[in-house]
Write a structure and sequence with these properties.
The chain has 648 residues and is of the alpha+beta class. Helices cover 58% and strands 15% of the residues. Helix 4 runs antiparallel to helix 5, helix 4 packs parallel to helix 9 and helix 10 packs parallel to helix 13.
Amino acid sequence: MSRDHVQSAERPAQDGAALPGGAETPYLELLARGAAAEAYEQPVLRARAAGRPPEHTAALEHAKLLALRVRAELEGRRRREAELSALFETAHDLAGLRDVDAVLQAIVQRARSLLGTDVAYLSLNDPVRGDTYMRVTEGSVAARFQQLRLGMGEGLGGLVAQTARPYVTDDYFRDERFRHTTAIDAGVRDEGLVAILGVPLMLGPGVIGVLFAADRRARVFEREQIALLGSFAALAASAIDTANLLTETRSALAGLERANEIIKDRSGVIERASDVHDRLAELVLRGGGVHDVAAAVAQVLDGTVEFTEATAAPADALEASRAEGHAVRHGSEWIAAVAAGEELLGALVLHGHPGLDPVDQRTLERAAMVTSLLLLARRSAAEAEQRVRGELLDDLLDARDRDPRLLRERADRLHADLDAPHVLLAARLDTVAADADQEAAARRRLWSAASHLAATRHGLAAARDGGTVLLLPLAPGDAATDLARRTARHLGTAVREPVTVGASAPVDRPAVRPDAVVAAYAESRRCLDALRLLGRSGDGAAADDFGFLGLLLAGERDITGFVDRTIGRVVEYDERRGTDLVRTLDAYFTCGMSPARTKDALHVHVNTVAQRLERVGRLLGDDWQDPARTLEIQLALRLHRLSAPAPR
């Protein structure tokens, strides 16, 4: 607490004006429980309402002011502790720097969190092109903004770079102190930014980039917040400098290693290695696969090379190759492990070449390394697409205020059409895992299989609530029930375990109906729970499959649709012909399905009742008097009667 605050707080005691009647007590309680500032008005209001003496009310007012000062000081200390903790964590990340992108991302994330802004981002200068580009963004939703390149001296960042000082604007588009450009303004407008704070990233006397924090509403940044962002900028600059030094060191080491190999190898070996390198590089650049690499190496080594799964290769030779990092001989074959760290991805097997000189052996080993890189790249691309699909589905379910246009754009990049009818499907494994690790592994397999299915069906998938949720398009003429059953079979086959799937009713244009998407997910989960309770594990179903129970499972309680599906043909027949089949059917069930009692209730001849019931049978089907059907028909009759307008 500052000296002025301390003196102010102590003054009443020094002047002999102690607070009477324990006026400070309620405020001590408010401070102890961390109450909101508005709560500090209540003791004064209660005293006035109770008619307490003016001196007591004045004492409460004075105590309130002191308490609010203490509260503000405590909040300031908590905020400073959080800021120092974040700076410490970021410095710790920097000390163990492995991936500069990860460190910069952490800096931007923490800056955004502590300053409480909508967006934070970092731009770096490109000395080759003479401009500035976006390196890391957090909270950004506009693609054009994330890909901005700014000329030197343009925009707010240009002003920061020129002056090497922080700059803040509370209304970007009305601020004329920096040079606006069409490209920059369009990107900022797409992102919806209003208030922006930028601080320079300094290496020595030079500016290498700018760290920004921005809000989509007018805001005044405080001096402490500017200083905090400046501290993060210093850490970011240090991370970039460290990464540059590591890159230079690694480049120098790689150069020395290449030079050493050149010295040791003969000129013919160099030409041969160059040929292999060129072929493999060409394969990678044109998007070749692992079998293409095997074919290229086979041509160079004048033998037969094939890629096999890890389970199909000789176990001892494969493990030896992985451990030693070299190809090993196994009978008349050579085995080169295709590995990523400790993970075995497969093997390259060279047939018909029992004698292999060191150069050819190294060629096979390099081919195995290229193969592992191709496999990892393919896996990374697939995992990245799965994450993007999952994030989009999470946004549909959680962020109901998302811009439908942005959702469509994100979906278009995944070849998904969110303007078409879709079905929400909740999927879950039905086997019980032995421990938490096995359960987590089983869930990952389910999510992976669901993501692959979603990608092939132009849909979305995400892990959620202990299972997996899918949003799949519904083809014309297809039904939610059929889609649920096909999905259950497909996922069950993929993970080799029973998978139960509950489906919602179709949702039209999910991008513009977030509430309907959320309701559909809840409906699909209720169907999933109903299937499991009924012992139908490994099956798929929608609410319509449960008859009148579907009313309880459906999110929107489609009573009209249930009545129409159950007795709609009878109602339509009465309306078209002016008959009284609905009333006859109602009386028939009321009279215990007795035609004799029914004719008394309707005051008609028993033959008339029989004729009407025969007509009902032709309209509803021969099984209309089966117990299950009669229960639904009676419920539909009652709902129809309740929904009819009251007689005047």
